[in-house]
Amino acid sequence: MTAVLHLDHVSLVHSDGDDHVTALDAVDLEVAAGELVAVVGPSGAGKSSLLAVAGALIPPTSGTVRVGGVDLAGLSSRKLTALRRERIGFVFQTGNLVPALTSLDQVRLPLTFGKVEDPRDPAELLAEVGMAHKAGSRPHQLSGGERQRVGIARALVTRPQVLLVDEPTAALDRQRSQDVVGLLAREAHEHGVAAIVVTHDHDVLHHCDRVLEMVDGRLSPQGVAVG
Ligand SMILES: Nc1ncnc2c1ncn2[C@@H]1O[C@H](COP(=O)(O)OP(=O)(O)OP(=O)(O)O)[C@@H](O)[C@H]1O
C-alpha cells in the first residue's frame, strides 16, 4: 500500500517564555490510502497537536511531514493553504457547521474558496452520508449525529487525500457514535482516503484498521509500552 501521509521523526515543542512543552516527541507515522487509523490516549498527550501538524496547520519544530509525497517544509504559506484546501479534510468535534447554511450549502462551501479539480457532487455526497432528506435543513434543525454526517460530507467534497478527525463522537450516544465512525471507515476504504481519527471512545475502535496510543507526545501501537 502507498503511504499518503508520512511523519518522520516529528517533534513539536510549544514555547512560552522559559516554559517548553514537548507536545510531540519524535513521532513516526505512515498512513496509507484507504486506511483509517485511530489515535487514543490521555488528555494532554498530544493528539490534537498530531492532527494540527499532519494537517499543515502548525509546522513541526523538527522532523518531516509529507502529504502525497510533498514535503510541507518546502512550501510557501500560499502553497500550504492551497494544499490544505485541496488535499486535506478536517472534521471537528461538533461538526463546526455554519449556522445560516443548509446542509447542501455546507457541503458546497469548500468549493467556493477557489478552483477544485474534480470535486465530488455535493448532493450525491450528502445522499451517501445518509443526509439527502435533510439537504434543506440548517444545523439547529439537525441532531448531533446528523451534524457530524454533514461535517464529514463537507470534509470529503474536495476528494482530499488525507482526512483528520478530532473526537467525532464526543457529543453522540452509543448508536450514533457507531454509525459515524462506521461511515468514516467506509469513506476511507471506498475512496482511498488516508484517515486519522482521534477518539476517547473505545467502543468504536473495531471500525479502525489500526489503533495507536499517544502518551506524553510519543506514539506507539496500542498496548505496547513506550520506552
Ligand atoms: N499553544 C500551546 N502553547 C503551549 N502549550 C500547548 C499549546 N497547545 C498545546 N499545548 C500543550 O501540549 C500538550 C499536548 O496538547 P494536545 O492538545 O495536543 O493534547 P491532546 O492529547 O489533544 O489533549 P485532549 O485529549 O485534552 O484534547 C499539552 O501539554 C498542552 O498543554
UniProtKB/TrEMBL annotation:
Q: Name one GO cellular component term.
A: plasma membrane
InterPro entries, per database record: AAA+_ATPase, ABC_transporter-like_ATP-bd, ABC_transporter-like_CS, ABC_transpr_LolD-like, MacB-like_ATP-bd, P-loop_NTPase
Keywords associated with the record:
ATP-binding, Nucleotide-binding, Transport
The Gene Ontology terms for molecular function here are:
ATP binding; ATP hydrolysis activity; transmembrane transporter activity
Say which domain of life the source belongs to.
Answer: Bacteria
- According to UniProt, the name of this protein is ATP-binding cassette domain-containing protein
Q: Which organism is it from?
A: Nocardioides marmotae
